[in-house]
């Protein structure tokens, strides 16, 4: 029998995000590493597996692997194979290594992927990421479609004055392909960033052009359907709805339960703990959850 955990504000926890590493083969100009800075320790596969078992016991039915770049972990396929039965596994990647691993990951049980891609222009892509690997990312997307790691969400962080004129290009890229969903993401500025773009006008324009607007259950996020393209807008900053409907618990790559994306002062370490101890720490982490914006 499973027990669903709810925080003091009545929000059930149904989703777990696990950062598997802070290593990355790109150097994106806006990277905030979800608040992790130069961790001295990286969780073992066994530690990750224990956490997933505990999550399953508490009724969590989906896990997303993130980073850094999770495909840099040599034991990634083993970790994916170890996802408990009944738990859907997905992964966020920059796509540079995906072409070679898509088939193995699908066979291991991975359900789908998000691919971070902030420009379709090679020069702009290199400016943002410090790398000229755009062709490899596009190859990875094609490979993921071929093996069925779909629907693929393309994560585009909107950067003022850099890629904000490419939204229509991305709409054209996903248009007519039901395997692709464009996700426009508000820049997370853990410190001042002059590239933060205002998505109000973007979202208003999408709404005016859409034949259908769907409000998703998770986060009350809106999906805009226009001209054969599906677009979601992710706006965590100053967004009371984002917080009110948050159902996620995070685990940092160095083994700390993280109750809130926007806070770094209430983490709980699970390193060296038994499964029974991790269960109690899960309860404590959920008890610490509170909306960042109210």
What this model shows, in words?
With 294 residues, this protein is α/β, with parallel strands linked by helices. The two termini are 34 Å apart. The model has no long low-confidence stretch (mean pLDDT 93).
Low-confidence stretches: none
Number of domains: 1
Number of strands: 12
State Rg: 19 Å
- Element-by-element helix/strand order: EHEHEHEHHEHEHEEEHEEEH
- What value does the average pLDDT take? 93
By CATH, the topology is: TIM Barrel
Summarize the structure.
With 294 residues, the protein is an alpha/beta fold. It has nine helices and twelve strands. The protein has helices at 45-57, 76-81, 98-108, 122-129, 134-147, 167-174, 200-209, 240-244, 275-287; strands at 15-19, 62-66, 88-93, 112-116, 152-157, 180-185, 212-215, 222-226, 229-234, 248-251, 256-258, 268-269.
List keywords for this structure.
294 residues, alpha/beta, TIM Barrel
Helices, strands, pairings?
Blueprint: E1 15-19, H1 45-57, E2 62-66, H2 76-81, E3 88-93, H3 98-108, E4 112-116, H4 122-129, H5 134-147, E5 152-157, H6 167-174, E6 180-185, H7 200-209, E7 212-215, E8 222-226, E9 229-234, H8 240-244, E10 248-251, E11 256-258, E12 268-269, H9 275-287
Parallel strand pairs: 1-2, 1-10, 2-3, 3-4, 4-5, 5-6, 6-9
Antiparallel strand pairs: 7-8, 8-9, 10-11, 11-12
């Amino acid at each position: 029998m499973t027990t669903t955990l709810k925080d003091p504000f009545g929000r059930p926890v149904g989703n777990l995000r696990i950062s598997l590493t802070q290593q990355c083969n790109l150097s994106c100009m806006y990277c905030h590493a979800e608040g992790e800075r130069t961790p001295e320790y990286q969780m073992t596969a066994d530690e990750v597996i224990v956490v997933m078992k505990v999550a399953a016991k508490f009724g969590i039915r989906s896990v997303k692997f993130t980073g850094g770049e999770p495909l840099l972990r040599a034991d990634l396929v083993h970790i994916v194979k170890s996802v408990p039965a009944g738990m859907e596994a997905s992964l966020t990647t920059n796509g540079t290594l995906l072409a070679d691993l898509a088939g193995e990951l699908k066979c291991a049980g991975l359900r789908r992927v998000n691919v971070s891609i902030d420009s379709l222009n090679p020069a702009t892509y290199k400016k943002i990421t410090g790398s000229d690997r755009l062709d490899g990312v596009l190859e990875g997307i094609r490979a993921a479609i071929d093996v069925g790691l779909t629907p693929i969400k393309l994560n585009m962080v909107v950067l003022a004055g850099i890629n904000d004129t490419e939204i229509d290009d991305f709409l054209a890229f996903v248009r007519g392909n039901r395997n692709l969903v464009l996700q426009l993401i508000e820049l997370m500025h853990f410190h001042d960033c002059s590239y933060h773009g205002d998505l109000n006008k973007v979202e208003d324009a999408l709404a005016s052009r859409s034949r259908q607007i769907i409000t998703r259950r998770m986060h009350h996020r809106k999906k805009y359907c226009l001209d054969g393209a599906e677009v979601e807008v992710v706006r965590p900053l100053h967004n009371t709805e984002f917080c009110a409907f948050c159902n996620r618990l995070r685990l940092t790559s160095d083994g700390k339960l993280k109750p809130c994306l926007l806070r770094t002062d209430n983490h709980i370490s699970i390193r060296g703990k038994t499964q029974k101890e991790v269960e109690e720490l899960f309860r404590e982490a959920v008890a610490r959850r509170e909306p960042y914006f109210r």
